[in-house]
Amino acid sequence: MATEETRVLLLIDDEPAQSRIVSTLAAREGWRSLTVESCEAALEALAGPEGHEIDAVLLDQRVAGDAACDFIRGIKAERAEIAVLMLTASTSPLLAVEAMRAGALDYLIKPVAPERLLSALRTASRVQTPRDELQPLAEKLPSVLEFDAMVGTDTHFRTALAKAATAARGHGHVLVEGESGTGKEMLLRAIQHASTRSKAPVQLVNCAGVAVQTLESLLFGHEKGAFAGAFNRQEGYFQQCDGGTILLDEIDQVDPVIQDRLADILETGIVRPTGAAHGFKIDIRVLAASDMPLANEVEEGRFSKALYEQISETRIILPPLRERAGDIPALTRYFLSKIGELEGFSHHSIADSGLSLLEAFDWPGNVRQLQTVLFRACVHEQREALTAHSFPHLSELLGDADRGESRARGLGVLLYQNDGNLRPLEEIEADIIRLAIGHYQGKMTEVARRLGIGRSTLYRKLSDLGIDNAA
C-alpha cells in the first residue's frame, strides 16, 4: 500500500471533465489519481505494476452499469483492504444498500459537493481503522422539515426548538450555532418551512470549500466579462430568491471579502452583481448556520462584526448529542423507523445490549453520526433486532468498558434478551415494579398511583412475582 503522503486513487470514469474535477479535488487530500475508462482496464491496473500501491477505488456506476455491485464484490474478494467508493446519479436507497452489502465503503450521489467527496476520501484514507463506520451518510435519508419530527426531550434542545418555532413566525434573520452533525441544516429548513415565506423561493448554500470567486458569483451574480472566464451573465441567488429565503450553511467559513458584501446587502437591501454598474433592490431573509461560536470569531477578528450583528437577531444554540444522551433511545428508534421505510430495508428493533453500546459512546459527529451508524448496521444485520454485535466497529472503539450505567441514564427496563428476542412479559413487569419502587423511595401508595393500579393489586403482584417491597 502507498504511504499516507502518496495515497493512490483508481478512478473508473469515462467522462474526462468529471475525471479532471475529481482528480483535482483528490489532490487536495494528498491523493494521486490513476484514471481508467472501463472496469476491464481497472482490473488490469489492479493486477499491474502499480496495483499494490492503489489504496482506494472510485467507481462511476454508469461505467459498470447493472454489474456495478458484482464488480465491487470482485474487487473486495481479491483486495479486501482497498476502500471502494461508488459515484452514481441514482438516488435509490436500494442501490445504496446493494453497493454497501457488496463491500462499498460509501455511496456518493451526483452532482457530488466537493466537501462531500473530500469527506469520503478522508474516510477511505483511514479505512483500516475502526472509525470507518462512523462517517456521514446523511443523504440516504430524506431531510425532515417539521419541528414535530425533531426528536428529543432534553431541556436545552427543546428550548432551542421553541426559540426556532417562534423565529419561524417572525421576519428577522436567524443564526443557528452548534457542532457539526447536531442538525443545524435541518433546523434551518424547518424554520423556513414553517415561515410566512415557505412558498417563496429558497436556496441552500454550503459555504465551506467553495472558492471565493465562485461563491461571489453564486450569491451575488456577475456580468458578462466581469472577470476572466465570465463568458455569460449570471444571476445570483440573492436576486433569484427575492421575497424568499437564503440558507447559508457553515457561514463561519466565508471569506472576509464576502462577509463584508453580505453585511452591506443586509444593511441596504441592495445587491450589485460583480461587474454591474448598478444594483437591485431585494427583500431577503437569511437563515445562517455556524459550527463555531461566531461571537468568539468576532472577538478574534476572524468574522465581520457588522455581519454578525445582522444575522444574529435571533441566535439559537443546538447542544451536542453527548450533552443530551438521554435522547439516544428515542432518536435510535426514530431513525430505525425511517430506515425501515426505505426501499430494500426491513424494519429493525434494537436490543438493550445494542442500545447500551450506543449510549456509552460520546458521538463526536453528533446526531448525523448516530444516524450513519444505524444505517450501516441495518444494511448488514439480517436479524430483526440490532444487538451489540451489530456494531462491531463501535464495540472495538469502546473496548470492554462497563456499560451498566445506561440503566441509570434512563434505559431503565431491558426489553430484549442478548439473542434479540423479547424477554417474558412477567420479567419485564417485575422490573417495572422494582424500578417504580426505587424511583418513589418505597412509597407504595405513590407507586400504585403512578402505575395506575390499586394498592391491593400492587401487593398481589409483589407476592406473585416474588418481589420484596423493600427492593
UniProtKB/TrEMBL annotation:
InterPro entries in the cross-refs: AAA+_ATPase, AAA_lid_NorR, CheY-like_superfamily, Homeodomain-like_sf, HTH_Fis, P-loop_NTPase, Sig_transdc_resp-reg_receiver, Sigma_54_int
Domain Sigma-54 factor interaction: 150-379
Residues recorded with modification 4-aspartylphosphate: D60
Source organism, top-level taxon: Bacteria
Short name of one Pfam family: Response_reg
Coiled coil: none
Keyword Repressor: yes
Domain Response regulatory: 8-125
Subcellular location: Cytoplasm
Keyword RNA-binding: no
Name recorded for this polypeptide: DNA-binding transcriptional regulator NtrC
Organism of provenance: Qipengyuania gelatinilytica
